[in-house]
């Protein structure tokens, strides 16, 4: 993490938010003490089909603008998807890794492919990626390495806003980038979410913007006149924006980003939590679906394999997005099928990043063992 310069007092505009965040840990509610699901929980999630919905295609080729050569852009792995509903169809932006580099995690170039579905499970893909490293303003932040792990929301006016990880492998730098589009095919990159000021050197990833339901769509939600974004791994933190493009971390009294969720010994999130798909503003509050890693060297949940990524949920106050009200003690979704536990990440992952309402159901799109895209559904209550 970057070095933080302490400040004597918190920003007055966020004073109430910061104080509430300090109270958050004491506000957690153990859900293991009851056999009945709490009313705020989204789910239960089940698999509508026993298999991935998107898998690698070694035959797909793309003329890479960086090398000037054809590459098999989705030959090795297709995983960690974003999702949105547009014109009565589900569109998924998925991370695809080519077969360049060494055969280790993080050593391939990632690009984003686009697939569409009429029923949420059977997808048609475009033959070439729609988002990738190029000779543009973000070249230094994305080459070599690529663009990874997208999350996607729609603004009130129909603009699509993408948060993604920029990975500059040779410099060991990763950060959250922001991009926008009107059609999901042509994108404008806006650079780092937190800009080049105080947080310019910060390594950060996994950014999920708060949404609300508007008929059959989920669109970006404002609370107290601002958009809100939950971000980070190891600890989940918070940021605000006026336009969904330029973001400012919410800070505590010492001038550091507030911590909302962190690891819990003996639980499924004993290594760390990580932001998942866009959270949803509901009548009960803000429901956050988050990803959780089980500890690898003891102190984790013995019911899960060491290093397993599963899915949890947490509830935050609708009027104060930093106030944690409840958090599950057991995962709501976890690796169970062979395609979720074999592949690039053999410990198993159900890594959720895409979440939509479609034909009266919740659709949760997730990465399977860093190798495939899967889907789970749940009724909308």
Concise structural overview:
The chain is 4% helix and 38% strand.
User: Which residues form runs of ≥5 with pLDDT under 50?
Assistant: 1-35
How helix-rich are the residues, as a percent range? under 10%
The N- and C-terminal alpha carbons lie at a distance of: 40 Å
Topology as H/E string? HEEEEEEHEEEEEEEEEEEEEEEEHEEE
Helices and strands: which structural class? mainly beta
Sum up the structure in keywords.
disordered N terminus; Tachylectin-2, Chain A; 25 strands; 3 helices
Architecture overview:
- The protein has a single domain, classed as Glycosyl hydrolase domain, family 43 (Tachylectin-2, Chain A, 5 Propeller), CATH 2.115.10.
- It is globular, with a radius of gyration of 19 Å.
- The N and C termini lie far apart (40 Å).
- It is mainly beta and 381 residues long.
- Helix content is 4%, strand content 38%.
- The N terminus is likely disordered.
- Strands 12, 13, 18, 19, 20, 21 and 22 form a 7-stranded mixed β-sheet that branches. Strands 11, 14, 15, 16 and 17 form a 5-stranded antiparallel β-sheet that branches. The protein has a 4-stranded antiparallel β-sheet with strand order 3-4-5-6, with no helix packed on it.
Describe the SSE topology:
Layout: H1 15-22, E1 62-63, E2 70-71, E3 77-86, E4 89-97, E5 110-117, E6 123-125, H2 139-142, E7 145-154, E8 160-168, E9 173-181, E10 187-192, E11 207-209, E12 211-214, E13 217-220, E14 222-223, E15 226-231, E16 237-241, E17 247-249, E18 272-275, E19 280-281, E20 286-293, E21 309-316, E22 324-327, H3 338-341, E23 350-358, E24 361-368, E25 372-379
Parallel strand pairs: 12-19
Antiparallel strand pairs: 1-2, 3-4, 4-5, 5-6, 7-8, 8-9, 9-10, 11-15, 12-13, 14-15, 15-16, 16-17, 18-20, 19-20, 20-21, 21-22, 23-24, 24-25
